[in-house]
Each structure stands twice: as C-alpha cells, then as structure tokens.
Specification:
257 residues, four-stranded mixed sheet, Trypsin Inhibitor V, Chain A, elongated, single chain, alpha+beta, three-stranded mixed sheet
Length: 257
C-alpha cells in the first residue's frame, strides 16, 4: 500500500510541476512577449494631413512612425491644387498603433465630366439648388424682358448655349439668362372699373398682365366686391407682365347703438 501511495504522490507532484510550468509560460506569453510583439500601449495620435500636398505627406507621417496608402478613388475640388489630400482614414485625433497605414484620398488633376441638366423653363431658385447639388457653380445672371419672372430662358457655358446632356467639367461656371417678368410687347390697360374682382382678375391675366396689390375701399354707393379704381389707369400703355393694382369696394359695417 505504501508503494501505491508513493506512486500517486509522485504523479501528483509531476502534474503540479507541469501545471506550474504551463501557467508560467502562459503568463510570460500574454503579459510580456505578446504586448512587446504588438507594441501594446504604444499608440500615436493621427495628425491632420488634409490640405497637404502629396509630396509633403511621406516625410510628415514617417517622422510620426506612420505609413500611408493612396486610395484608388480620387475626389475633385476646384479650389485646391492637384494631388492635395482631400480625405484621410483614420480621421485626425484617432489613437492608432505605431506603423499604422493612413489611407489618403487625393484631389484629381483633371475635373470629372458631368452631363449638363436641363435648366430651361425652371425657376431660378430651383436651378441654383440643382447646380449646387451636382457640383456646378452658378455664374452671371442676365435679365431679359420676358413674361416669366425669374424663369431660366437659356443656360450658357463660356458664352455658348449648351444643351441637356452636354459634358462639362465639374466645378464649371454656368451663366443664366433669366426672365424679368416684363415682356417687350406694349399693351393698353383695359378698363376694369365696375367689374367684380373675379372678372377683373380673369381679364388682367388674359391680357398678358398680372395682379398687383389689392386695396379695399369702404363705400355705401357701390356694390361690394366691385372695382372702383386701378393703376395704371385704363388706356395706359404698359409692357407685358406689368402688375395692375386694384381698389375694391366693401360695405361699411353698421354699428348697433
């Protein structure tokens, strides 16, 4: 029996020694070797290189123990020189390990081509938003006599009218010819006095003019809603699209005493 106990004791001691060695090796690997191999705790703050010229980037990053790689896709900003850094990943201020690659997007040398949209007959307010969204710049606005107020009549690039679908560089300036709301045709103002408001408006618009300010005049002698005065007056010569101001009668309210 004593021999069996001695054997068991020796086996237990051996197992204990083996476990101790395993624990020691594991501790050494996890706490010493692995952190040293992966530069554990050694981080650097990513600098901001946007706006840098490409030639400056390599030396700037190498002094900070960082590398770089250029993205295949490039961007374009007409205000910056070609090969200027537009974007970077990771972003500035991020903490990364030494030797980490910073991925850079550069400004293209040549502007990408865009297909010109159709802006003709569109309101100027909408056109400005369209140009901005697709990467074009609104240039000079030239107003010409036309009944369509602030409506685009022509779209020009470098002084020439350009059709829908014409390819132009991104960032190009598009000049616009816009209607001022006044046509070239001379019209005589019709006589609106005595008409009701609805008929007067119908006649004004049908004559190529437009409604102006509405004023109300209190009277007891003219039916309510009747035109009692307008400017310009009947017979006056005006251009197409000019406004006509109206004075319309309204009945005075009776007071209870």
């Amino acid at each position: 029996m004593s021999q069996i106990k001695d054997s068991i004791k020796k086996v237990g001691i051996h197992i204990g020694i083996i476990l101790g060695i395993i624990i020691l090796l594991s501790f050494t690997f996890l706490k010493i070797f692995l952190p040293s191999y992966t530069n554990h705790g050694e981080t650097v703050s990513v600098p901001d290189v946007t706006g840098f010229d490409f030639e400056e980037v390599e030396s700037f990053l190498s002094t900070r123990d960082l590398k770089y790689e250029i993205n295949i896709d490039s961007g374009f900003n007409s205000d910056l020189k070609p090969f200027t850094v537009l974007k970077q990943n990771p972003k500035p201020g991020n903490k990364v390990k030494s030797g980490r690659k910073i991925y850079l997007t550069l400004n293209s040398k040549n502007a990408p081509l865009l297909k010109m949209p159709n802006l003709v007959n569109s309101p100027l307010k909408n056109v400005q938003e369209i140009l901005s969204n697709i990467g074009l710049v609104r240039g000079e606005i030239k107003y010409v006599p036309d009944i369509g107020i602030n409506v685009v009549l022509e779209q020009k690039y470098r002084g020439r009218n350009i059709p829908e679908g014409f390819e132009i560089p991104k960032g190009s300036q598009i000049d616009l010819v816009v209607g001022d709301g006044l046509g070239n045709q001379i019209l005589d103002v019709p006589n609106l006095i005595g008409m009701d408001e609805i008929d007067a408006e119908f006649l004004i618009i049908g004559s190529g003019l437009r409604m102006g300010r509405i004023n109300y005049v209190t009277t007891d002698t003219v039916p309510q809603g009747t035109i009692v005065q307008h400017l310009p007056p009947a017979g006056a010569e005006v251009k197409t699209g000019e406004p006509i101001d109206l004075w319309i009668s309204e009945i005075a309210k009776q007071r209870d005493f």
